[in-house]
Design goal:
This protein is of the alpha+beta class. The chain contains 15 helices and 16 strands. Helix 3 crosses helix 9.
Length: 505
């Protein structure tokens, strides 16, 4: 007999209330009292993002917003707790993690099918933050074959994150391979807010009755069969179906206490892509060959360097949730700066590279004013130009370090450049300065001050990075001679920066 874990009543969602208390609560309390919750307190970025998307899926189904006016009314009015409570009561049977017939976000027939009934996998199979397969995590000593146990409240979060962020690749249960989850392949961008209720309102897209009728999350859909795994289904009809999707077939195997150490696993529902409809949290920029590229996380590149993707122009598509929130805030008369959460998972095929969450706060005017958007683009271009010039100067420095005439092997040069603090030091300095640049862009009248201060920051970072690179190699004759020969490249970069800022200001 499987135990019960009712997601509506049992505590599994970690939250921080607006009075500062941190508590773990059930889904019913989280949604019916969302106006009293400041934020979620999940232990990893992937759990945080998956949980936000799940709560948005429920919000889309519990209280459809037909228009911007309806969103403004909810934003400025009383939180519609009654609608959320009624919806959860209607679908209460679908929110039991270990239900015998319809376990939450799972596929119960895996326990009877001949291909899966006798195959058990450790919980590490779906636990992203544990070392398993190709992903070996620093300071984590879990092993895929280990019999590690997690309590039910943690398992729910693991399951949500896996269904959104599972990587594609070989599977060989019912098919040879499985595609990645709907959260893979881009940086997630959303609008943060002082309360969970306000977050749900700003990030919930408007839907017509017809759109609402098609946009069914996993718990409202008919149970899937083994035959469903073998075909490619239609594209996602809306946000709710995308935010809560059976990317993989999973059946948790709990013990009598409700703790879980193993599961059954197979491919899930594959949907054909719809290039015309992006994920609501996905931004795109126009590439060099005029193709549109999704904004992604990078090991070496902070997300603010691509913040031009957050404004609406011919070279970028900001996320639908950001455009939506801007309209709602504008209609509600709220001129406050807008803070964006940005995060997700970066993978190299089946290998997990990194996950993280960042925040960017910008005056709403920057996202709306063409003139201020142009200044933002100029500031980013100035920084990128200086970064490229610094890299070139460091490359010249490395060549002269290796050979006095500068004729050195490219691979060896790149190895020396990677060991210099130059570009890392440069971008780290600007990581600190960029939020102040954005904060200064509050009106067209502030443009000169913003550009002037940003220019000083870029110049200072460039000079400091060059000096640190030279200093890091010592004060011997070889190093000083190499620095003297390479300094012309550094000076060209510095003079080019001064000319660009001088013309622009």
């Amino acid at each position: 007999m499987r135990p019960s874990f009712n997601l509506l009543e049992r505590a599994w969602i970690p939250v921080r209330w607006i009075d500062g208390r941190v508590e773990t609560i059930g889904l019913g309390a989280a949604l019916c009292e969302a106006d009293r919750i400041a934020t979620l307190e999940c232990s990893t970025p992937l759990r945080q993002i998956a949980m936000l998307r799940f709560l948005l899926a429920v919000a889309h189904r519990a209280d459809r917003l037909p228009s911007i006016d309806a969103a403004v009314e909810r934003l400025n009015g009383t939180w519609p707790a009654k609608k959320f409570c009624q919806y959860l009561d209607t679908w209460a049977a679908s929110f039991d993690l270990y239900d015998q017939d319809r376990p939450f976000l799972q596929t119960p027939w895996l326990g009877q099918h001949e291909k899966t009934a006798t195959r058990e996998h450790p919980l590490a199979r779906i636990t992203t933050e544990w070392s398993s397969g190709n992903s070996k995590l620093l300071m984590d000593h879990h092993h895929e074959a280990g019999a590690y146990v997690e309590p039910a409240d943690e398992v729910v979060q693991v399951l949500l994150a896996h269904q959104q962020f599972c990587v594609g690749g070989l599977s060989k249960v019912f098919k040879d391979s499985a595609i990645g989850g709907p959260g893979m392949g881009f940086a997630h961008i959303w609008v943060t807010a002082p309360t969970l209720g306000r977050f749900l309102t700003l990030n919930q897209l408007q839907q017509s009755e017809a759109e609402y009728g098609l946009d069914l999350p996993a718990w409202e859909c008919a149970p899937i069969s083994a035959a469903d795994l073998l075909i490619t289904h239609l594209p996602f009809p809306g946000p709710a179906s995308r935010y809560c999707h059976l990317s993989r077939s999973v059946l948790l195997l709990p013990d009598s206490n409700g703790d879980c150490r193993s599961l059954r696993w197979a491919e899930g529902i594959a949907r054909s892509p719809n290039d015309a409809v992006l994920d609501p949290m996905e931004a795109q920029r126009r590439g060099k060959d005029d193709t549109w590229l999704s904004l992604r996380l990078s090991e070496e590149r902070a997300i603010w360097r691509d913040s031009q993707c957050l404004v609406i122009n011919a070279t970028s598509h900001p996320p639908a949730v950001v455009r939506n929130a801007m309209q709602v805030l504008e209609e509600s008369g709220d001129p406050s700066p807008i803070t964006l959460g940005i995060g997700g998972l970066l993978a190299d095929k089946a290998k997990l590279v990194l996950w993280r969450i960042e925040q960017i706060t910008a005056p709403l005017q920057v996202l709306e004013s063409v003139q201020l958007q142009g200044v933002l683009a100029l500031g980013l271009d100035v920084a990128e130009q200086a970064g490229r010039g610094l890299f070139g100067a460091c490359s010249d420095f490395a060549r002269y370090l290796l050979r006095e005439n500068g004729d050195a092997d490219k691979t060896a040069v790149r190895g020396v450049v990677n060991g210099l603090p130059g570009t890392r030091h440069f971008w780290h300095q600007l990581d600190v300065a960029f939020p102040h640049f954005l904060q200064n862009l509050q009106s067209p009248e502030a443009i000169n001050v913003a550009i002037s201060e940003w220019g000083d920051a870029v110049r200072g970072a460039l000079q400091s990075a060059w000096r640190e690179s030279v200093r890091s190699t010592g004060h011997n004759r070889k190093s000083l001679m190499a620095a003297a020969k390479a300094e012309s490249a550094y000076l060209r970069t510095k003079n080019g920066l001064d000319q660009k800022l001088g013309v622009s200001t």
